[in-house]
Design the sequence.
């Protein structure tokens, strides 16, 4: 029974915690915004209608907040979690400070902020929390996102 | 009896003040909710106090902890410095027999949380052969569990004569008070809570049942 | 989407609003090609065989795509002058492709923060099995009625 199973290996590389890495720059284009809107069903004129957006509070087309989550980032530190054979999204806390305009270049910096274990319906889980800070070409932080992934041991379904 | 806040639980979105405001709003709609017990995951900070908030909103706010053991999650009421010293609360596999015994010896009370859930509820482990000796009470109604899981917990309680509490397992404001524990006597402190859990008369209820109870008995303690 | 403006004076704790969302496989395929290359390569978002590799019966929706739909609910509701400050969610279960979900918002608190009118909402997705795969809190600043 569960109480007698061997304890899982919950170790990881603690040296990566807090080490911030530059994960690259991306230009946010109108086409990219339009593609994103189509995929997630956005029809908001602030994102899609140039004239309406120009008359709106942001003087032009802005990106939906969630578009930042689709930016390709690279070069994160790896905490080398030993537990589990796959990962799933576990949580996201996004703080929006300023709108992202079409034409902005966004720089992403990523740091692992926390690694911890807990148990749930599916058994033992290990969580890795990664903070991304998004900054525009004017040096203004536009948003942060604390994204956590859960490492789990799963059985393949036949 | 079972709630989590942004103050200390990684997966909670509700603030303590948010919970209290929501309870005040629920009372206006006829629901009977006297108080809450914060049971943060794997954590108990003795320095945290909510007396001022409790007084402002007229809601009792007590504190316990939800710990993780080799037979699932356990709610501990009456956490003492000795208990916190003897057990690593951050562990996800505390020895359950030692924890239940130590809670009792230290003047506290431990309850098997969301007892009907797979892996992290007591029923799963009893079905696998565990003897629940030393466990007096389970959370039979849990606001985050399915009806099927809560029924599994009810059957476990019936089979072993366990006492039953109800808890919302709230992580978000709108979930607070979904499941509760109805005590015969009024409770204003953790000491009174532990005393009633040990010797008192109580049972698990849903928030809808508190409306019916209030209608049947205009004055309830 | 509506361009209607929501004002702080017009809302109360307990107010609810909702939309419906069908998690169509073709939209998922569009989403996974938007930028993050690792999404495109993950079989769980592509087909049943890929899902089975990670213990799932059916292909699922990327968590951030479900979050985008939940965010859309809030930004549509608040109107063009509203400002989304925070979106804080937990992914509790996978959203399965082909599911039709309720996308819900419930106002839990209204208050002023440094003179700014702030609204807190519980937000969640609910599938037809009664499960809430995604649940969280949104914080929005709304304008006052002129």
Sequence:
């Amino acid at each position: 029974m569960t109480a007698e199973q061997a304890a899982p290996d919950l170790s990881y590389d603690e040296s990566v915690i807090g080490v911030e890495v530059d994960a690259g720059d991306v230009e946010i284009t109108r086409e990219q915004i339009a593609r994103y809107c189509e995929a997630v069903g956005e029809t908001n004129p602030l994102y899609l209608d140039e004239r309406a957006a120009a008359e709106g509070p942001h003087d032009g087309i802005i990106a939906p907040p969630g578009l930042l989550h689709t930016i390709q980032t690279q070069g994160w530190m790896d905490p080398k979690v030993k537990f589990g054979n796959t990962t799933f999204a576990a949580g996201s806390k996004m703080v929006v400070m300023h709108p992202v305009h079409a034409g902005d270049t966004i720089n992403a910096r990523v740091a692992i902020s926390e690694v911890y274990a807990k148990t749930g319906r599916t058994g033992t889980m290990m969580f890795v929390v990664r903070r991304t800070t998004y900054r525009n070409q004017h040096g203004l932080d536009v948003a942060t996102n604390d994204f956590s992934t859960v490492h789990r041991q799963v059985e393949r379904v036949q | 009896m079972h709630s989590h806040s942004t103050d200390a639980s990684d997966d909670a979105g509700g603030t303590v003040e948010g919970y209290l405001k929501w309870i005040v709003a629920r009372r206006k709609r006829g629901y009977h909710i006297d108080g809450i017990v914060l049971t943060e995951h794997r954590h108990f900070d003795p320095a945290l106090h909510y007396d001022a908030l409790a007084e402002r909103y007229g809601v009792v706010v007590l504190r316990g902890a939800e710990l993780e053991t080799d037979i699932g999650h356990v709610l501990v009421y009456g956490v003492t410095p000795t208990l916190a010293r003897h057990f690593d609360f951050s562990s996800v596999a505390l020895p359950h027999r030692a924890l239940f015994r130590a809670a009792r010896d230290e003047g506290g009370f431990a309850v098997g949380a969301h007892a009907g859930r797979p892996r992290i509820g007591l029923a799963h482990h009893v079905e696998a052969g565990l003897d629940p000796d030393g466990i007096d009470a389970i959370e039979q109604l849990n606001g985050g569990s399915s009806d099927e899981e809560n029924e599994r917990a009810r059957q476990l309680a019936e089979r072993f004569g366990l006492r039953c509490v109800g808890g919302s397992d709230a992580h978000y404001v709108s979930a607070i008070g979904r499941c509760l524990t109805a005590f015969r006597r009024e409770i204003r402190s953790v000491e009174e809570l532990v005393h009633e859990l040990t010797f008192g008369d109580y049972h698990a209820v849903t928030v809808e049942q508190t409306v019916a109870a209030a209608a049947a008995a205009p004055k309830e303690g | 989407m509506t361009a209607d403006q929501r004002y702080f004076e017009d809302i109360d704790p307990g107010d609810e609003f909702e939309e419906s969302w069908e998690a169509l496989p073709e939209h998922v395929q569009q989403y996974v090609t938007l930028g993050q290359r690792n999404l495109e390569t993950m079989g769980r978002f592509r087909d049943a065989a890929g899902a089975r590799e990670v213990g799932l019966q059916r292909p699922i929706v990327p968590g951030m795509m479900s979050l985008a739909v939940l965010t859309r609910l809030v930004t549509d509701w608040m109107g063009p002058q509203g400002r989304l400050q925070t979106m804080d969610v937990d992914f509790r279960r996978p959203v399965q492709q082909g599911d039709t979900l309720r996308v819900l918002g419930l106002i839990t608190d209204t208050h002023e923060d440094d003179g700014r009118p702030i609204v807190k909402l519980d937000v969640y997705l609910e599938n037809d099995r009664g499960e809430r795969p995604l649940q969280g809190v949104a914080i929005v600043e709304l304008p006052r009625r002129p």
